[in-house]
Amino acid sequence: xxxxxxxxxAAVGLDHRHSYDQVQSLLDVGGTCVxxxxxxxxxxxxxFVRRFPQIPRVDDRRRLLxxxxxxxxxxxxxxxxxxNHAIEAMRAGxxxxxxxxxxxxxxxxxxxxxxxxxxKRIWTVNFTERFEVRAVTRALDLVRDGAIGDVVQTVGLxxxxxxxxxxxxxxxxxxxxxxxxxxxxxxxxxxFLVFAGVTDADITLARAQNVAHPDDPAYEDFGEIALASxxxxxxxxxxxxTPDGLPTWGDGRLFxxxxxxxxxxxxxxxxxxxPGKDHLxxxxxxETRHIDCSDAGLPYYANLHRDIVERTETxxxxxxxxxVCELALAAQARAERRDVAA
Amino acid sequence: xxxxxxxxxAAVGLDHRHSYDQVQSLLDVGGTCVxxxxxxxxxxxxxFVRRFPQIPRVDDRRRLLxxxxxxxxxxxxxxxxxxNHAIEAMRAGxxxxxxxxxxxxxxxxxxxxxxxxxxKRIWTVNFTERFEVRAVTRALDLVRDGAIGDVVQTVGLxxxxxxxxxxxxxxxxxxxxxxxxxxxxxxxxxxFLVFAGVTDADITLARAQNVAHPDDPAYEDFGEIALASxxxxxxxxxxxxTPDGLPTWGDGRLFxxxxxxxxxxxxxxxxxxxPGKDHLxxxxxxETRHIDCSDAGLPYYANLHRDIVERTETxxxxxxxxxVCELALAAQARAERRDVAA
Lengths: 342, 342
Fold this sequence. Notes:
The structure is a homodimer. Chain A is α/β, with parallel strands linked by helices.
């Protein structure tokens, strides 16, 4: 492959810690961050400045949007504000990488799509539970090589740590984060479509609840979605109940059941087991074995860089980004109708 | 506790290998098996005779039913025949322990219930995935002691090995085994009710499919159920796709998510991990730790023995046995309506 010109980018909205990963990963593929903007002083700010003291803050984000060097704007603003940032950036001629969720309403999704189609910019949602997880890269290679036959089902278990002390008020306000299915279950919708190799799915179950946070009435602490597409199906469950005794934010698992084998990912920790993260267990017709995936790649960022230069869709097909958001919004709406009916 | 008179029992129907466990476990609590009857020569027969050469076969099961010494009849007949055996045994004055599923239709359930209520006999369904699993005993103790707070959700992953060479034709005939949800998902319905401490649940999802057995049209190889009861919920998935490389029949997992902690059971194997079975992982506010449950008890059989003598319901409340069957049948019916609609 011919080498690409270095990527120049800016960061708009640091409200979620994912901004740290976004910026670091883009620096890792040779990018230069010309500056960052955020509103006020979110609790994430100190950590960002500590990690990236060399990157300057700008007071008016138009300085970044009007900077002709900037090709890509990354965004981890409050979820309900991300669509506006995306539209603004694309109208200014920039490609846009959003933290998930990229949008929190169908209206935002429509507006983003319209702006993207009119400007021909890239609008990508960084599903960190795939793009930042080496074990997922390896699992996708195995599945695509036929290691487990046809995919029958994916089961994703996604407990998350609430971390109240680190959260700003938007975290407890559904009108701002969009609901638990839109917010953190969207990761697993993405993974199902990719592992099953399908472009759409039916929602067969969607529920969201506030189980144990009576003092935060606009919070959802548990959610689940089931999907079906052809002969493949998915079950997705998320919560905010990770216990403090776990040494990381969540015991994220992904089981991929095939007609000829099974893969289990212990993505971030193997509880009281092997050290480190990115554990893959493959059970096939011959054996049961652990595969350490710490040497697997994270191709999303380099692919995105190339897409920006060559106007391709290798990091994530544009239609896939929309479909994941659409399914997450539809699941959230269905869960809410159920709440009203119950 | 005062010691009980030894239990005398008989075995009727050996069509499923669970007959081995039933008889062995009753012998282990001091029982005496006066004889067994089965129709024809199921593939399970040789294994039974090899394990229990001292127990005589009878040609006419009435000899067992009319034997005044016999207090309990155990049954692992073809599933669709178990209800008739139960009714016959209870009408003959015997208590009855069925392999799961105890019934395959609502009509059978009604008939069994009527016979049980009229005769005041015990009708119990031996849910081996609870009663034969020491890790479940320990997990129940922990949950009831408050180790993980309130139960938010159970997630049961139940792959099973098809083992075609060992199966008789009924295994592939839904009219005989009742459908995959009735057959093998009933285990997990039982576990949800027990772990959540509830007596009923709503079915929020039920699907059953033939994904990869086109030559066995009356077979279901994948199924899933979701349940909700109050603030607790359950997800249950089963299949017949255990790969040959797994050293046991299935990588059965149970995740119990609570408001204050999580328990994971790796019931039968820890894939490429610790040796043996009955692995429990507890994550609470303080730590993450593995607990070997090989020293936990299996109280079902001893409790049943006492129930038979004292006419109590400690092994399993009678209403619970009916409720699990009713939910499994209702889920199966819902899955079939969906198939027809699709």
